[in-house]
Amino acid sequence: MTAPTWILHASGLNKQYGPGCPRCQQFTGPAHNNSQCPVCNTVYACVDAGFTLHQGEVLGIVGESGSGKSTLLQMVNLATAADSGHIWYREPRTPDADPVDLLQMDAYRSRHFRNDRLGIVYQRPELGLNMRFTVGGNVAEKLLLANWRHVGNIRTRIRELMEQTELPPERIDDDPHTFSGGMLQRVQIAKALSSSPSLLLLDEVTSGLDLSVQARVLDLIRRIQWEQQMTMLLVSHDLGVIKQLARRTIVMKNGHIVESGLTDQILEDPQHPYTQLLVSSAL
Amino acid sequence: MTVPLLHVKNLHKSFVLHLIDGRTIDPIQDVSFTVDSNQHFLLWGRSGIGKTSILKCIYRSYLASSGEIWFSSDQFGSVDMIQADDSMVLKLRHREIGYCSQFLKVLPRVAALDVITEPLVRQGMPQAQAHDIGREWLTQLGIAQRLWHASPVTFSGGEQQRINLGRAFIASPRLLLLDEPTASLDAGSKQIVVEMIQRAQQRGTAVLTVSHDLDTLAKLADGQLAL
Questions:
Q1: pTM flag (> 0.90)
Q2: Helical packing angle, A151-164 and A135-145, nearest 10°
Q3: What 8-state DSSP symbol labels residue A272?
Q4: Whole-complex ipTM
């Protein structure tokens, strides 16, 4: 039998902020266009979410602000603790090994997994970078956490990554405040790629950038995905970005996944009323 | 008995327009036909009758409402394209089923040579080898050499459509779905399309064409269905 090709399989993921009450179900969810219970004020950020991510694929997560897409991403990033559910991970370097449930790992293994196997790029560079460190220092931080120790090797690796992400390597010791928005996104990408992760998480990476800068960042991500067959989870509210990068897409609303499918099917034949609204609202 | 490459049985497709009072449109009702390996099958009929919708249901850009679409895969045996999971559909698109829409949709930053060779590179062919093949195709398609490194968005409608078709044919899928391949083409370009279809059939590709250009394509078809 051939080994499954998935790298990540999430199921039953829940995240709520608040105690919940017997009336919550009556007032929250996509049918009520509400994530927050008006009785107990509990916010349902993510409800019974699940997806499968295959090796080398890009899965898009689309939805409006507050739909729960970033919460879902942060649960995979192990930065937000899920209330319940499973995230099974299969290490692509050892495909015959049993998958592990990331949510059951102890703090030490969880931290090691984040530093070594995951990379994340945020919309706002200050979330992914320490603006008091130099550009090289930011990338070195992740390498040090992934147990790199030799200063010469670290600097060589950082220069390689800067070239790969179209940053001038001679600016390795510069202050990130002297970099433009698009360059800072590339620094984040260099940092995310530094430990050769098996999964790259992208959270609204091109939002807020000028169109031409956005195009360059998207081209860079596409090239990295192509050359390294990188598996990516891509959160965006922009259907244009999703269309360019993701083969499959899930649509979220009020903490629920309301539709999932091939990206072209989601765009050309959306089934859920919210997806139809989203597609019809695209510029 | 030989299993057809494609068997469409009692296909129905409805669109529920939630934003317009839940109104329903039914462009495809009870359509059935088969396409054999190496066959060129023509679906024809007036505009708006649902020809393109049938192709999109087969390619799974549309979700069929009911019926069956059996594709005889080399790798996976008989697959119902309506019931198959997304990953299976992507694998079939990657190797066995190609689709060419009426209009070329590409990024305005990618050169014609890269556009036309993308399916080969995606299948794992080294870029230099893919470019050699791409140059031959661009020559056959009558695209001037000075344009090879420019983006096709700057090309004329006819040139864009030839690039679009070349990109669909170059990877030699087992089944190729063509949507109005001769629309917006002059007589010379139409002849290029006719030759491409003939060569594809010789290489073992079955072609399912949707068109109302019967003058050019009917004589090529060895099976057809009027809608």
A1: yes
A2: 120
A3: S
A4: 0.92
